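Escalated from tier 1: S-adenosylmethionine holo job.
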Amino acid sequence: MTETREEWLETFSGCGFCGMLLPEEIEMFINVGEDKRLPSGHILEIGTNTGATTAGLSRANDRRDKEEMVVSLDPYPGKAFSCAVRLLCAANATLYSKNVIAMQCSLEQLQKVFGNRRVFRMIFIDGDHSYDASKKDYELAKEMLVPNGIIIFHDTTNEIYGVKDLWNELTKTLPIQMENGEIRISEEYPATGTCKILRWYV
Ligand SMILES: C[S@@+](CC[C@H](N)C(=O)[O-])C[C@H]1O[C@@H](n2cnc3c(N)ncnc32)[C@H](O)[C@@H]1O
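Tier 2 regenerated the structure:
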């Protein structure tokens, strides 16, 4: 990796397949993904689709200089598999790093084999946007987050998505007590674009 952060951001923003992300969201993902103040742990993305966020997160993750991975899930073959192939082909190319694992499954399926291990420092919920599914993803994510880690919800502002209802409901229950500390709205990372961010403070 030889290019600067700015050069890479320019390449990434102009790559033509991150149309689902607002420019300020791209920047926020990069900032959170590379932030060395966050604890050790991997990144989990729920909803691979084009792999645009995956790409952004993978390069940001590299900048922490740790042996950490970006795990991206999508249960639909057209999404996860096309991305997996693209990721493998592009492993040495500009957009992706080698630290990505693309899996064809939901978080519920992953959790069945993986268990509730707390291994993720950052979890991005952008899969099935219905209320029930995003709530299930959130409940599972909470069990896999490391202390001081963060959970990002995408599309929390659009009326047609149940994520908005979930977010409104969650904000009424904050802070959420954990075995150690509590989950609150992130102070370091304010809401950006359609994203809202929670952090587990210990
Ligand atoms: C809005 S897109 C994600 C956009 C992605 N972040 C990007 O940069 O292109 C939502 C994705 O979630 C996937 N999806 C649907 N249900 C899911 C689930 N239960 N778990 C994970 N992903 C799911 C869809 O197949 C779709 O690819």
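The first helix runs from residue 5 to 13.
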